[in-house]
Design a protein that fits this description.
Two copies of one chain form a homodimer. Chain A has helices at about 10-20, 35-40, 55-60, 80-90, 105-110, 120-135, 165, 170, 210-215; strands at about 5, 25-30, 45-50, 70, 95-100, 115-120, 135-145, 145-155, 175-180, 185, 200-205. Chain A is α/β, with parallel strands linked by helices and about 220 residues long. The first copy, chain A, has two domains: about 5-120, Rossmann fold (3-Layer(aba) Sandwich), CATH 3.40.50.720; about 125-215, Regulator of K+ conductance, C-terminal domain (Alpha-Beta Plaits, 2-Layer Sandwich). In chain A, the strands form two sheets. A six-stranded parallel β-sheet of chain A has the order 3-2-1-4-5-6, with helices on both faces. Chain A is elongated. The interface between A and B is large, with 64 and 64 residues. The structure holds adenosine-5'-triphosphate (ATP) (2 copies). One adenosine-5'-triphosphate binds next to helix 1 of chain B.
Chain lengths: ~220, ~220
Amino acid sequence: KKQALVIGLGQFGMSVVRSLDDLGVEVMAVDSNAERVRYASEFAEEAVAFDATDEASLGKAGPKNRDLCVCAIGDEAREASILCTALLRQMGAARIIARAADPLHERILRLIGAHEVINPERAFGEWFATHLAFRNVRAEYPFGRAMTVSEVALPAAFVGRTLAELALPRKHGITIAAIQRGEDTVVTPRPDDPLEEGDVLIIVALKGRVAKLMERYE
Amino acid sequence: KKQALVIGLGQFGMSVVRSLDDLGVEVMAVDSNAERVRYASEFAEEAVAFDATDEASLGKAGPKNRDLCVCAIGDEAREASILCTALLRQMGAARIIARAADPLHERILRLIGAHEVINPERAFGEWFATHLAFRNVRAEYPFGRAMTVSEVALPAAFVGRTLAELALPRKHGITIAAIQRGEDTVVTPRPDDPLEEGDVLIIVALKGRVAKLMERYE
Ligand SMILES: Nc1ncnc2c1ncn2[C@@H]1O[C@H](COP(=O)(O)OP(=O)(O)OP(=O)(O)O)[C@@H](O)[C@H]1O
Ligand SMILES: Nc1ncnc2c1ncn2[C@@H]1O[C@H](COP(=O)(O)OP(=O)(O)OP(=O)(O)O)[C@@H](O)[C@H]1O
């Protein structure tokens, strides 16, 4: 069973604890705030309140023996996040994921040894924007080098048309990976099936192609 | 051209401003912090510093004429976020997206009229967890009702095998939407093509299926 150490139980850290627990990972949840630790104890194998910049206490949590250490301390305690990350590296943690509050903080975290650095607010804002710009785009996320996968409500102009007629890959550079129709998910849509009102398309495409499509057909 | 009003230029709000600008949306960026407003002026059509709970100033920004209003004020000013959202609703904004700092804040924002409420940190933590639990899962995001789309490095056991042999839909309940091979993205993988080391699979599946697959083949 995998073991994770998660430090910092704000919205991001707590959500990581809960989700890792759901995935069968054994989690030790840490925060200097005892109330947040108490809340986490429902989902974490162990939940302990201590200052994660205190070397003795952090050492007892055995970072070296964890498959994964997450420093989820946020923008209200940047020095703590930097010091905690540095200590985890010093203690031989094999995989340290650190949260950055901005690009400068990110540079520092990488320099002092975080293996992965993330900025949840910034990433979410980028992904969320296509949905904001085009209401029919329910969600869009980045994949691979320059791809996106999008969930798109069928444009009115496509109702009753077939995939063969629409020639989406050739004409628009997009591929339909799946169609959600009512309760069902059709994972290999047939070329001669007419698309139906209410269909939701799961589209794989190069970055920006779906936005272009929506500009034309929204 | 679509018009957006974005209030609150922290990491999330600023990222929304930049991304909307990239998508060709006209943005007015607002923050009480003049320095953040100055930074946003590079990406926003208009960038103005004022207190978004001041009814007169907010009224001048014309929420009613915007396709979209985003209240991106964070957890450090919850009352401001609530008041600003309420004012936008009162002024007839057609589509208000409000950011919540926790579930209680979310309930309040919905009650006072936000059309959509989001919690970026919490959502990111949920999505990020599968990547944390299984290193071969580079990314996984939710789609539709209970689907996920995942980016997965090919498990060693599948190298040299063909999709026909592996019978992934039948045996594991997953569908390969695309394969990234080197620089290329193969969007309709052929059933008799052997999979190659280094391949990255884009997988469509019901929630939890990819995690099950990784438990078996990681
Ligand atoms: N030295 C420390 N040791 C342990 N926990 C800490 C330390 N410093 C801060 N924390 C905890 O990290 C958590 C998250 O940090 P912070 O409050 O900066 O971000 P947040 O904005 O509340 O988080 P989120 O955006 O995820 O909701 C808090 O619960 C805080 O108590
Ligand atoms: N009344 C207000 N009017 C306008 N802007 C405001 C008001 N109150 C707060 N803000 C701005 O909202 C922005 C984001 O809010 P806050 O500082 O609470 O969150 P944050 O944690 O910095 O944001 P993020 O997590 O997105 O980085 C800040 O730039 C702040 O100046």
